[in-house]
Structure formats: structure tokens, C-alpha cells
Amino acid sequence: xxxxxxxxxxxxxxxxxxxxxxxxxxxxxxxxxxxxxxxxxxxxxxxxxxxxxxxxxxxxxxxxxxxxxxxxxxxxxxxxxxxxxxxxxxxxxxxxxxxxxxxxxxxxxxxxxxxxxxxxxxxxxxxxxxxxxxxxxxxxxxxxxxxxxxxxxxxxxxxxxxxxxxxxxxxxxxxxxxxxxxxxxxxxxxxxxxxxxxxxxxxxxxxxxxxxxxxxxxxxxxx
Length: 223
What we know:
Radius of gyration: 21 Å
Strand order of the largest sheet: 5-6-4-3-7-8-9
Number of domains: 2
Binding site for NAD(+): 95-100
Order of helices and strands: HHEHHEHEHHEEEHEHEEH
Strand content: 15-25%
CATH architecture of the largest domain: 3-Layer(aba) Sandwich
CATH class of the largest domain: Alpha Beta
Number of strands: 9
Shape: globular
CATH topology of the largest domain: Rossmann fold
InterPro entries: CoA-bd, NAD(P)-bd_dom_sf, Rex_actinobacterial-type, Rex_DNA-bd_C_dom, Tscrpt_rep_Rex, WH-like_DNA-bd_sf, WH_DNA-bd_sf
Mean pLDDT: 87
Number of helices: 10
CATH superfamily of the largest domain: NAD(P)-binding Rossmann-like Domain
Subcellular location: Cytoplasm
Domain CoA-binding: 85-183
Main location: cytoplasm
Structural class: alpha/beta
């Protein structure tokens, strides 16, 4: 993600977080041969409100054509440019347990502007093995191979996440996607996005329980 570009345009963080949703919806529309889409149709495809979508896109300077809508290919290009997806970003997945294996085999990275080039682990039993067509290396080899710009994906156990993050940052990593179920501390200038599957399930459980309670209340009222 082009943080500098977002800051330059003063795009709110909440808007930046929704841009990938719009991009995914546009890709689906483009694959179906749709050339022009209204804000209502795009909002429905992205799962947001149309007024919010129009406000978000206005931060990009994209307002569409009144009575016509948005040019799908052009808007997709604008969002891709704002997100910094005009070229592939190099990715290193750190931690080759079950989750690391699954992420390495995930084909969606390549279609969204990310190239997984390194799989990293410190377990001698895993280093040198091949996963999803890539040889697992250690941090020392990553230091020799990695370019200046790299995005790290942490898939380590929680007890190893901080050390893995520290070592990645020491190599110049400034963007981290953290799948480990813990909070990591990073210096200023390093961006961390956390993916916590258990937390998301707990939120779903909350809504599921609330729905059941409301159903029970309605049922009680009918008796």
C-alpha cells in the first residue's frame, strides 16, 4: 500500500481500508464484461453504502459521470495506482508451520500484485525443504537475497513473533502482515496489519448469540 501517496492525498485510513474491496468488486465486474457501473451497483458488489462509496472515491478525485456511472477499467486502474499495485511487491512468509504452508500455497497473492519470493524459517529440519515450489531459507540467506523493499508475512507461533519481526525489521522491512495471535512492538516508520482469525470468530459468535437472543425474545412474546 502506498502510504506516502495516501498521506499526500490525505485519504482517511478507513477509506484506504475499503479500496481493496472496491478493487475486488471491479475485477469481478470486469471479468463479466461490465464496462460501466453505477455507484449503487458497485456499492452493492463491495458490500458498502453507495453514499460512503462516492465519498471514498472522491478522495481519489474520481466522481464518475452523473447519470452514467464509473468506467470500470479506469476506476480499477486509479485504485490500483493509489494502492501502489502497478508492480509486484516482493513478499517473504516467515514461519513454515501449517499456516505458513497454507499461505505459501495460496494463489491469490499473485493475482493481487504480490509475489511470494521467500519462505523463511529457523528450524534446521525445515530449512532447505521445498514448499509450493520455493526452497525454505533462514534469515541469514534472506539478508543476502532480499531487495530493498519487502513485505513480511508473519505466520510464526506467538512466542516467536516478536523476534521474527525484529529480525525482519533489521533487514529493512517496513511493512508487516501479522497472523500470529499476539501483539508485536515495532519502531516508528514500520506499518503492521494484524489478522486474528480467532478474534473474527468471536465477533461472529457475538452476533450469532445476539440473533438467537432476539429470536428467543420474539418467541417468548408470542406465547
